[in-house]
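Title: Request for sanity check on Acyl-CoA synthetase short-chain family member 3, mitochondrial prediction

Description:
We are preparing a figure and want to confirm that the structure record we downloaded matches what your pipeline produces today. Could someone re-run it with the sequence below and paste the raw C-alpha cells into this thread? We only need the C-alpha cell string, no images.
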Amino acid sequence: MSLDEVQCLARDYPETFWTEAAQNITWFKRWKRTLDKEDAIFPKWFLGGELNVCHNAVDLHVETGRGDQPAIIHDSPVTGTKRTITYRQLQEQVSRLAGVLVKHGVKKGDVVVIYMPMVPEAMFTMLACARIGAPHSLIFGGFASKELSVRIDHAKPKMIVTSSFGIEPGRRVEYIPLVEKALELSSHKTSKVLIYNRPNMEKVTMHPDLGLDWEEEMVTARPHECVPLPSSHPLYILYTSGTTGTPKGIVRDTAGYAVMLKWTMANIYALKPGEVWWAASDLGWVVGHSYICYAPLLHGNTTVLYEGKPVGTPDAGAFFRVLSEHGCSSMFTAPTAIRAIRQQDPQAALGSQYPLTRLQSLFVAGERCDVETLEWSKRVFGVPVLDHWWQTESGSAITSSCIGLGNSLSPPPGQAGKPVPGYNVTVIDDVMQEVQPRTLGNIVVSLPLPPGAALSLWQNDELFKKLYFTKFPGYYDTMDAGYVDEEGFLYIMSRSDDVINVAGHRLSAGGLEESVLLHPGVVDCAVVGLEDSLKGHVPLALCVLRKDLRKRQEDVVKEIVRLVRDTIGPVAAFRNVLVVGSLPKTRSGKIPRSSLASLVNRKPYKISPTIEDPAVFKDIERVVKLELRPAEK
C-alpha cells in the first residue's frame, strides 16, 4: 500500500492498524483492547497488555541469535577512543546495572535521574531503568546546578546516576561539583548517587553515605531479569523548559512508544535489522531517547553513539569519517550541523576522502531545512536527503517521507513530508476553519493522538490540557505555523509566535530565512521582527557568511536585500541585514528567535540553559550596537 492508503487505514480503522503494528513487539501478556478513546486527550493504548522495552531492545536479540552483533558503537573523537558493545555484552551490563539499582532500593515506579555525557553507560542506565520499571529522567551532562536542582525537586529521584567528567572540545567538565551544588539547592534529598568514573582520568568520589562507585558496584552485582510492566507504565520523563515557570516533564508510556518506534524504523527510515544507523544528536534530547537508544535497539540495528561535533573534532570531515568507517546505512541529523560543515568546508573537500558506499539516505529534523542546505547535502553526501517534522511531545515523526512504504526519494523541495499514519494533520486559521492550500495557518492534529505521543506532563495533567488542547478544542495544538500544498505535503514555516506581522501582513520567519539562504554566500541566518513605529514590525536578518567569500560585506548585504525583495516582494519591507560571526543554537540545533528578537530590540533577553555557546549573544549585541541605529526601529 502507498503512504496515502496506509494513512487512510490508520485514520479510519486505528484499532486494526495498530493491532497489526503491535504484533512486531514481544509481549509477556497480550493486550485485551487496542484503544480506549473515551477521553480523547488521554487515550489509552493496548489496555491489559504487559511487556518490557528492555526485553524487546536487548534480551530478545540475544535469544534470537543476534548476541554477537554490535549493538552500540561509541565513537569519541574528544577522547580519541572507539568502543563496540555487542547485544550479549549489552545484556550483561544492563542486567547487572539493574541489579545495582534494585540493591540500593530502586523499585518499580521510582524515578532515576541520569546526568551523564555521551557514553554507553548512559544508555546502559536508561535500559536498566526500563528493565525494572523505574522511569528515568535524563538531563544533559554539564547542565548548570540550578537547572539540575529544579528537575531534582520536580522528579524526586530515588537515585542519581552520573559520571566523573564530560569532555567538550578543548575543555573538561567536572560533573560531581555540579551534582553536589544541585543537591545543596534542592529540597528533595536523593538517597544515593552512582558515579561512573571515566577510564584514563582521575577517580572522583562523593561522601561515602551518598556516593557509590560504578565499577565496585558492578563487580558484586547480581543480574536482574526484565519486569513485566503494564502498557501505560511511564518509561521516562523528558523536561522541555528551563527554570522559569513550572517544569514541563513530558511523560512517555511503555507500549505505545515501543510499537510506534519499531514501526518507524522499518516504514519511515527503511532500515533492516542488522544495519548500522546513526542519529547525530544528544541523548538528552528526544532524538537521543528515541533514535540513539530505543528505536534502533528495538529494531535490531547497530546504533552509533557519537561524542563529538560536526566541526572541530577535529574538522569538518568528521561526519563523513564516521559514516564511512562504521558503514552507516542511514543517518539522522539537524540542518544546523550541515550548515556548520558547509560554512567551514564549502566544497566538502575534507569529506571527499571518505567513501560512503553503504549510505542510502540522510534524514534531517529539529528545525526547518532550507532548500539550499538540502541541495548542498544531496550533492556532497550523494544520497537522498529528506526533511521530516516532529516534536518532543510526539516522540517520533509527525510528517515524513515514509521511504519504507515506497515513497518518493525526491519529494518537492522545502516540504517536510506527508502526515505519518496515526497523525491526522490539518492547517486551520484562528477561528478553527481549515485554510486553502498554500495558505499559512496553525498546524493542528486531530485527537486522539497515536501510540508513542506524550501521555501527559509529569504530575500535571491540568497544565498538559491547558498548553496543548485548550486553544483549538478537539485538536492537539503543535504551536507551529505552516501550510499544505495541493498534493498534501506539509511545509513548516516557523513557530506560531515567530510569525512577523508587517503592517498587517503575516510573514513567516522561516520563509524569509529561506529567501536569504538562496544567496550563495550565506550559510546560516535568523530572521526576527524589529519594532517599527510605522509598520509595527519589519524583518531583520542576522546572517553568517561563508568563510571563503571574497566579496565586500556591504555588497553582499545589498544583494541579500535585493534577493528577498525579488522573491517575497515589497510587502516584506525587507531592508535590515546584520552580518554576524555565528548564531546561538540549542544543543538540538534550534535558534532561540524570541531571545534574538528581544536583543535586537534592545530589551532584556533570556539565555536558555540549553544554548551551546552563550557568548554568541554578546557578540551579536556588539554588532547591533555598532550597526543598528535606534532610529531605524
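Thanks, this matches our download. The chain has a mean pLDDT of 93.
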